[in-house]
């Protein structure tokens, strides 16, 4: 963003701060061979700054290549 001279219009939301009482689950896919469709799905969420706030972008995809 600095190279393109882009600056945020609004302060970014603090969505990545964990609560001390929330449980952290282990990574369950370590060592798993993903070899068929619909075996593993994943999701990602991010926010996009807009002129009057921000909006969320959500992606849900099948992990199979």
Count of distinct structural domains: 1
Mean pLDDT: 85
Structure classification = mainly beta
Shape category: extended
Q: How are the strands ordered across the major sheet? A: 1-2
Distance, first to last CA? 31 Å
**Sheet of most strands:** 2 strands, antiparallel
What's the SSE pattern? EE
Per DSSP, what share of the residues sits in E-state strands of 2 or more residues? 25-35%
Radius of gyration: 17 Å
- Fraction in helix: under 10%
Query: Which regions contain 5 or more consecutive residues with pLDDT less than 50?
Result: none
**What is the total tally of β strands?**
2
Give a topology summary:
Blueprint: E1 41-50, E2 53-62
Antiparallel strand pairs: 1-2
Describe this structure in words.
The mean pLDDT is 85. It is built from no helices and two strands. It starts with 40 loop residues before the first strand and ends with a strand. It is extended, with a radius of gyration of 17 Å. Strands 1-2 form a two-stranded antiparallel ribbon. A hairpin with a 2-residue loop joins β1 and β2 (53-62). The chain is 0% helix and 31% strand. The protein has 65 residues and is mostly beta strands. The chain has one domain.
Task: Name the descriptors.
two-stranded antiparallel sheet, 65 residues
How would you summarize this macromolecular structure in one to three sentences?
This protein is mainly β and 65 residues long. Helix content is 0%, strand content 31%.
